[in-house]
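An instance follows:
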Amino acid sequence: MNPADYDAWYATPRGRWVGETEYALAARLLAARPGDSLLDVGCGTGWFTRRAAADGLVATGLDPDAAWLDYARAHSSQALSWVEGDARDLPFADASFDHVLSIAALCFVDDERRAVAEAVRVARHSFAIGWLNRASLLYRQKGRGGGSGAYRGARWHTAGEVRALFSGLPVRQLNVSSAIFLPAATPLSRSLEPVIPAGLPWGGLLLVSGEKA
């Protein structure tokens, strides 16, 4: 999939709903304030990076793919920063950002544990890192047999598996939430999503949030 097609999906009714729902959960858990700095790890075309900037955050997107970063630069304000880099070896000093965000990106990275440790290392206050959920309806639709479309090649995890990736790291208040319980984005999906507790581990996105200890 090319970056233009990927980004265009977020302009569709389903894509916009999924993106906004995932971002709303992450934003609530990060508890960032306007003016805070945020790093979006595995930003791709920068949809979540731009969304965070729209909330007044000083946002930086990092991705290993130069072509996708070129797309992100061409479709964003000059106030945003874009860095080519590896999630397993972030080119930033310890505690460089108030908050670290990553949505369904580390599931494409070899050695996810190392990438998680790096995200925690560069966070000053809080982090929210999302994975694809193997115990979800989305997995049944898009994840089986190696995955399809944008999900091809992704690793899908359970809540216990993603929590274990943080074992031994300097974190506190660790929380596992989920979103996108009915991924079809029908009127029923939209009406039920706000009333289903985020603590139930069955949504398509598993989000681990916490604070730097």
User: Anything to note?
Assistant: Residues 130 and 207 are 4 Å apart (CA to CA). The chain has a mean pLDDT of 97.
